[in-house]
Amino acid sequence: MEQTPAPFDLRLAARLASLRLERGWTLETLAERSGISRATLSRLERGETSPTAALLGRLCTAYERPMSRLLAEVEADPQQFIPPAAQPVWTDPETGFRRRGISPPASGYMTELVEGTLPPGAVIAYQAPPVAGLEHHLWMLQGRLDLALDGTVHALSAGDCLRYRLTGGSRFHCPGPETARYVIAITRP
């Protein structure tokens, strides 16, 4: 049975298509820049499939924007007060990773808050940062997380805080046994 895409997924697909067209890129050009096949890009832009975190990471790198900014561009008008029901949530269909924009990016603000929930055993790897030099402050709320940055693995547990500038690839792994839940404050350079 074929499911109808959610409104957010359709807006995301439209935004991905518009970003490519704004730059005057063909699907082939974007495929070369992102390492994603032309066929997959076409399906993503038509809303026929939902992107994984890894695919969104590659697209954000190609478009030189943080994932949170891309997802915020898909949302309706930014608000000052953001109750839980208005915080955009995206779930990676491949890993089950769930990303909530607690305080999504908005015009005039340099920092945003993101809650990440990663199931036991799940891994998300990004080849490169979408924007070099993003400042991150990751605060663990629950579980354990192994975060690899520039060849160093940081083993984080509930209550730990890690601050860093994102300059290279990163890898998030939840070793379990419980779900890893954390908040990241992200500030643009």
TrEMBL record:
GO CC terms, sorted: cytosol
Domain of life: Bacteria
Alphabetical list of CDD domains matching this protein: cupin_XRE_C, HTH_XRE
Pfam families associated with the record: HTH_3
UniProt GO molecular function: DNA binding; DNA-binding transcription factor activity
Domain HTH cro/C1-type: 16-70
Keywords: DNA-binding
Gene3D superfamilies for the chain: Jelly Rolls, lambda repressor-like DNA-binding domains
PANTHER family: BLR1115 PROTEIN (PTHR46797:SF10), HTH-TYPE TRANSCRIPTIONAL REGULATOR (PTHR46797)
Protein name according to UniProt: Transcriptional regulator with XRE-family HTH domain
Species classification: Bacteria, Pseudomonadati, Pseudomonadota, Alphaproteobacteria, Rhodospirillales
